[in-house]
Amino acid sequence: MRLSEIAVGCEGIIKHVAGTEKVCRFLYSIGCYPGERITLVSVLAGNYIVRIKDSRFAVDRKIAQIIELGEVTPGADEPDLGCRHRQASRV
Fold first, then answer.
1. Residue 89: pLDDT above 50?
2. Residue 83 falls within a domain, yes or no?
3. Looking at the domain assignment, is residue 14 inside a domain?
4. Which end is more exposed in the chain, N or C (fewer Cβ atoms within 10 Å of the end residue's Cβ)?
5. Digit-coded pLDDT (tens) for 7-27
6. How many CA atoms lie within 13 A of 77 on its CB side?
């Protein structure tokens, strides 16, 4: 499952990061690498606000689509969330 497909509030473990070497280096520099936990905090104007460790970052949809997640669970803040695919809205 991709980061762009999960519901807000869900947490996943990064399985794989695809993309160019430059993009991968950027993602690794912010702590986005296989085995690390990532939480989708919100989606605002096409930007995905994510929490990695104790920091929040904004990534665009293209970046969110190249981050593949393994295990996806409801976040600790919102235990009742059904963390399946996010409902895509068309603008």
1. no
2. no
3. yes
4. C
5. 999 999 999 999 899 999 999
6. 8
Please give the Cα distance from 50 to 30 (Å, whole number): 11
Please state, for a pLDDT cut of 70, what percent of the chain lies above it: 81
State both tokens at 27. 């993602």
Handedness of CA 59, 18, 89, 39 (dihedral sign): negative
Does residue 84 have a pLDDT over 80? no
Give CA–CA dist 30/63, Å, rounded.
13
pLDDT classification of 91: cutoffs 50, 70, 90: very low
Beta bridge partners of 40: 50
- CA 80 → CA 1, 56, 61, 89, distances in Å? 20, 22, 26, 22
Encoded amino acid at 79, one letter = P
Please check whether residue 43 lies inside any domain of the structure: yes
Task: Give burial (CB, 10 Å; 0-12/13-18/19+) of 27.
Answer: buried
CB 1 within 8 A of CB 72: yes
